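Today's session is about reading a structure prediction critically. Students often jump straight to the picture, but the first step is always the sequence itself: look for stretches that repeat, for charged clusters, for runs of hydrophobic residues. Only then move on to the predicted structure, which in these notes is written as discrete structure tokens rather than atom positions. Here is the chain we will use throughout the hour.
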Amino acid sequence: MEPDLCTASLDDDARSESRQPLGGWAKRLLDLIVASTALILAGPILVLIPLLIKATTGGPVLFAHRRIGFDGKAFDCYKFRTMVPNAEEVLEQHLRCNPQAAQEWAANQKLSCDPRILFFGKMLRKSSLDELPQLFNVLRGDMSCVGPRPVVADELQRYGAASHEYLKTRPGLTGLWQINGRNTTEYSHRVLLDTQYVRTWSLRRDLSILMRTIPAMMKFDQTS
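Below is the predicted structure for this chain, in token form.
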């Protein structure tokens, strides 16, 4: 029995190693082309924003948050810092003192009036420029240009049975959620959109989502 068990274990390991993210090499090639081009075009902005953050708020320029990626692997998701340095403590105190805010956070993992966000940070979020550093996540292979919104470990539990679909692909810099209402979309609908994306993926659809992302970014009333 022992040799059979060892063989089965080795087969499972081999299948795990050979498992590829959604879209395979074609999607990965698109990611590399789009992310490289975007970094070149956004070069001046990538220099200017850190200077403005330092001038207006001081402190670190980048914020790294642990997210869950393909096949359940954790990675550091990068953003330009838009919050106060002690953001976790500020959030805990705010939720403790404001039952309505606590209810909103429990439902959507977001706040319409977030006390952690700095004035300049609000402008970055409204324009989605705070997410530009995630282009480096795409180049590293942590993320894709298009895919589900990257989530933290606790948040993945809210996907329920749909978490299996989420783990089939790299999370995206943009996706169906971003072009279909963004922060005006309920969390359950966001999960539905992510699941739909994985089940109906095509390279043509990725290109369509990328083209629709820029107009969606201009709808500032739908951002946090």
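Discussion point for the tutorial: Residues 4 and 86 are 53 Å apart (CA to CA).
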